[in-house]
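note to self: the first set is below, dont mix up w the second
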Amino acid sequence: MASVSRIFSRLLQRRSFSTASVSDLKSEMLAEEKHAAGTTKTWKLISIFVAAPGILFCVYNTVSKEMAHKAHHEKAEFKGYAHLRIRSKPFPWGDGNHTLFHNSHVNALPDGYEED
């Protein structure tokens, strides 16, 4: 917080002791606007030609690797261990046997995988 108050005090001090004319301030503002317009154009071009293709490449890479993984992935064998998938009371949604984020390809029910 001390740095914020220091910045404000410097700004007030600079304004109160400066003898810049109105035309000097206007020319400074115009120069700042010109610089801002150039900077805006630069960042817009960087976003379009660097960031967007980079994001598209990452999406393509992720999807292609996931599809390759999915092609050779096999469903795990069901093992009916007594301590897994215990249902002491039904879930409050659906038929009461499926978890909230149930995936029939990965998650087994107490009596085994669902048939596709």
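second set (the one i keep forgetting abt)
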Amino acid sequence: MSETVNVVCYKAKTLKNGSHPLMVRVCKDGKKKYQSIGISILPSHWDFKRNEPNDRCPNKDEINASSG
């Protein structure tokens, strides 16, 4: 029974300003649960392959501090 916990840019929900919320995704026993961390980000500032903010992200330090 392994668990994984990741911070993801939740593309299924788009906010009014065009950004997407960052969520903590917990996977356990084949089920996924998402919880918002209260930060949103534009898709152009997120690296979807590495699942982290890219170098152009203006609040990269804040995101890394809240997710790590």
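remember for set 2: DSSP finds one helix and five strands in the chain.
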